Amino acid sequence: CDPKADSTNTLRDGSYIPTVLDLLRERGSVDAHDAIFQGYNGIYCVEAGGPAPGVGCAGRGITTAVQLLKQQNIFEELELDYVIYDVLGDVVCGGFAVPIREGIAEHVFTVSSSDFMAIYAANN
């Protein structure tokens, strides 16, 4: 759920992919397959996106993306071993807890810089 939508760039030779929220804004509904792209070594990539700058909650992007993937049974269809979420560390928002709250995440690992505010945000 990064407004820059660049979480998957290194897996896709620097190329950007459309975000779930951008596709929803453009089309009104989204087939999850239109938001899933393969990257390095066959890794599936999805960018949740976020609201327009200054409008809405950034956590809404991950909430919407997770709901879309669940509703369309993508986790089961793709038989994923791991799902990795790259979320902003400087925003404390309930939307980022969706994978845990929805029972999608069995384990959670936090990776951050040693910056005090990053650790503070992770603890919240």
Verbal overview:
The chain is built from five helices and two strands, in the order H-E-E-H-H-H-H. By secondary structure, the chain is mainly alpha-helical. The model has no long low-confidence stretch (mean pLDDT 82). The radius of gyration is 14 Å and the shape is globular. It has a single domain (9-123), classed as Rossmann fold, CATH 3.40.50. The chain has helices at 20-27, 59-71, 74-77, 98-101, 116-123; strands at residues 37-38, 44-45. Helices cover 30% and strands 3% of the residues. The longest helix is centred in the middle third of the chain and has 13 residues, at 59-71. It has a two-stranded antiparallel ribbon with strand order 1-2.
Secondary structure elements and their pairing?
Blueprint lengths: L19 H8 L9 E2 L5 E2 L13 H13 L2 H4 L20 H4 L14 H8 L1
Antiparallel strand pairs: 1-2
Distance between the termini: 17 Å
Cα Rg: 14 Å
What is the assigned CATH homologous superfamily?
A: P-loop containing nucleotide triphosphate hydrolases
Provide the structure class: mainly alpha
Q: Strands across the major sheet, in which order? A: 1-2
Query: Major sheet: size, sense and barrel closure?
Result: 2 strands, antiparallel
Characterize the quaternary organization of these chains: single chain
CATH architecture: 3-Layer(aba) Sandwich
Question: Tell me, what's the shape?
Answer: globular
CATH topology: Rossmann fold
Order of helices and strands: HEEHHHH
Helix count from the secondary structure assignment: 5
Indicate the percent of residues in helices: 25-40%
Question: Low-confidence stretches at least 5 residues in length (pLDDT < 50)?
Answer: none
Mean pLDDT over the residues: 82
Number of strands: 2
Taken together, the total number of domains comes to 1
Quote the beta fraction: under 5%
Name of the level-1 CATH class = Alpha Beta
Protein name: Dinitrogenase reductase
Cofactor: [4Fe-4S] cluster
Family: Belongs to the NifH/BchL/ChlL family.
Keywords: 4Fe-4S, ATP-binding, Iron, Iron-sulfur, Metal-binding, Nucleotide-binding, Oxidoreductase
